[in-house]
Amino acid sequence: DGLWVLGGLAILLGLKSLVMIVGGALFGLSVFTGLRASMFLAPGGEFAFVLLGESVRNAIVSKSLAEHLYLVVALSMALTPWLAAAGSMISKRFEKSDSKKFQVTTTDTDDMKGHVILAGYGRVGQLIAQLLKEKLIPFVCLELRPERVAEGRARGHNVYFGDAGSEQVLHSVGAHRAACAVVTLDTASANYRTVWALKKGYPNVKSFVRAFDVQHGLVLEKAGATAVVPETLEPSLQLASAVLTELKMPSTEVVTTVDDFRRNHMEELMTLAMSGGGGMGYSTTNSPPPPNLEDALEAVEVTMKGKKL
Fold first, then answer.
1. Which pLDDT belongs to residue 266?
2. How far is 272 from 278, CA to CA, in rounded Å?
3. Which residues of 101-122 are buried (b: 16+ CB within 10 A; e: fewer)?
4. Contact between 5 and 75 (Cβ < 8 Å)
5. pLDDT tens across 127-153, in order?
6. Which strands, in side-by-side order, build the sheet including 180-183?
7. What is the pTM of this model?
8. Helix (H) or strand (E) holding 182
9. Quick check: helix, strand or coil at residue 184?
10. Are the C-beta atoms of 33 and 24 separated by less than 8 Å?
11. Rounded-to-integer distance, Cα 27 and Cα 237, Å
């Protein structure tokens, strides 16, 4: 009976873990993330007792078999804390080894000059990387999520694990020889730190930054960004163009309408930016970074939280 219970426990945990890992991969999760999640979800739950009780009552399974299955489910639930800890430990260990493997060194970029630095390999970063690759423009990308680094490497892109807000990491990717940098990170503070590091350590490198909104763009412009583009502008114009086309508006009129709106919108941004003492980054800025990085980052977070509220 003991061997039967242990075997049943192994089958339950193994099958549920396999389903979670495979299912997670289908939805874009890394193997390590799926493994960690499977350790939480692999044990049985209280609903199993209800199903087994109903199965016995309806003579679907025997009472003896149900008693063994009760024990298997109960043992799996008791192991949940240890399984979760093991999954987290294994995932962190593999992610750490992957991160070290993908870290950039100066020898990786010794032959690069006049290249583009991409900070962030999210959706926007991936599109820009693909465009640069097709045009044979040399580039190097920095990303802090190991699964994105692995994805970029699989596509043949020069993606490395590293913090783009670190002057040491920027030096490793040859920032002193780079033509420009494109910053498309996931958070306002990460974008700000990267622009700050570039302006402070490599003032000759122009930085083009994706902003979450106009207010965020003003903060980035003051930090030293060369050009700032609000992320909602161009997608909105593309959708509007598709709608106007569907409404049978002539293609030349669609182009003129969208161009006029873009021009007027840019003028509004420039007016708003100039009223705040900057240029919204649409021309090269010579504004020095604020004197204290920690205070500036806190101000960025407060600003963005205020916008969300």
1. 63
2. 9
3. ebebeeeebeebeebbbbbbbe
4. yes
5. 999 989 998 999 999 998 887 888 898
6. 159-161, 139-143, 116-119, 180-183, 206-211, 227-230
7. 0.58
8. strand 180-183
9. coil
10. yes
11. 30
